């Protein structure tokens, strides 16, 4: 992982609303990716 | 190819194989998630970048272990449908909801916040990132909570009634089902086992790098933390295991009889058989090395307390003694070896030799994988000890299996064996490769990053490390 990607100072410098927005966005993307995988497996089993 | 085999035996081998593989990863990730939370919490509290460096080092390893745990876990759920459909149908109304809660937890806490933990440091800031790490750690614990509740209900079923169609259905409060008699003991014993497993892996990695460079600050810190865990948690785990054993004696006495190798009842105090070779044909333990009356002392706290043996259990309700007897001894031996390492580390620490004792470091490396062996041995003890039942005393394993032909089960078993060894072999090899690299500081990483064409020239790695990460004297504290 690149250092810039992991720099906590960059995160701290953002406004709270941006931080919360990023938190929600990454969380949703993570859950969404697994949701898609689960849906594909379900579709494959039922096919 | 599998025509001569029994479908039931193949289904059992398949589940045993896949669950043994699977259990390795959560046993590691449950402890590692908490370790990551501790590391990040300490970094936030102390501002010591050694903790941040260690956090980043172990986070990558956690992500791989977590992914392999998820993948191998999905296979387990499918087997409920493919190989154990009768079991699933009969127990679904009881076991379905807690397993669904486990999936929801894994989805929305572990996997969701794992994304933030891996990719969000520069997006959400320190405190929200720490919150995400805590959510992942709490998520792994809650997952373990539900899965162990399900398993414990299979061992000590309560709060159910059997409907006209043969299904187990809830009767009364769900709390009676969730908090069934063996659950609190199994939860504590298994979660502590996961913490110890992780501690010994972390300790082995720290020791490995200390053997190469005794001045490695990050190796010192991870080794010191792991040895504290070994010294403090190993005795607690032995105590918890003893309590779990007493609970098992109360609810599943046949399992304890098999663990102890007690084919015969002992009306005047039962011996503790340390080692021996169970001979189920002759109903005795050959070449037994035993301590007279010690088993009664441990299990009943009375030297002369009578203990029933397997001669009081009908033949067709007895678990296989050999496997349970040996797996139990492997688990207990490793537990005491872990305690030994903990004591060894305390002595070395008291003498100021924690980071210099080559023998301690070598021993810690040897003990690195011991937690995995112990958790699998413990799992074998409790699962094989429950035989011949899936739901103890109520539903036999033979009555739980799907009406499948042996070749169908055998083919999928073969596919699992090949796939698992390739996939998880590659994953494990990659984890070992990562562990072989020392945990580098962010300043070393920056030094190997993009060239700076303007701005302040970074200080040398040595001077930065001393300034930001504490001195060698502090590390020894």
UniProtKB/TrEMBL annotation, chain A:
Keywords: Membrane, Transmembrane, Transmembrane helix
Ranges that cross the membrane: 20-41
The protein, known as: DUF2474 domain-containing protein
Organism name: Blastomonas aquatica
UniProtKB/TrEMBL annotation, chain B:
Family under the similarity heading: Belongs to the cytochrome ubiquinol oxidase subunit 1 family.
Domain of life (superkingdom): Bacteria
UniProt organism field: Blastomonas aquatica
Primary localisation category: membrane
Disordered: annotated span: 445-477
Signal peptide: none
The protein, known as: Cytochrome ubiquinol oxidase subunit I
Compartmental location: Cell inner membrane; Cell membrane
Residues that span the membrane, as ranges: 15-39, 60-80, 100-121, 128-148, 192-211, 223-240, 323-347, 359-380, 404-432
Membrane topology: Multi-pass membrane protein
Gene symbol of the encoding locus: qxtA
Keywords carried by this UniProt record: Cell membrane, Electron transport, Heme, Iron, Membrane, Metal-binding, Transmembrane, Transmembrane helix, Transport
Polar residues compositional bias, start-end: 460-471
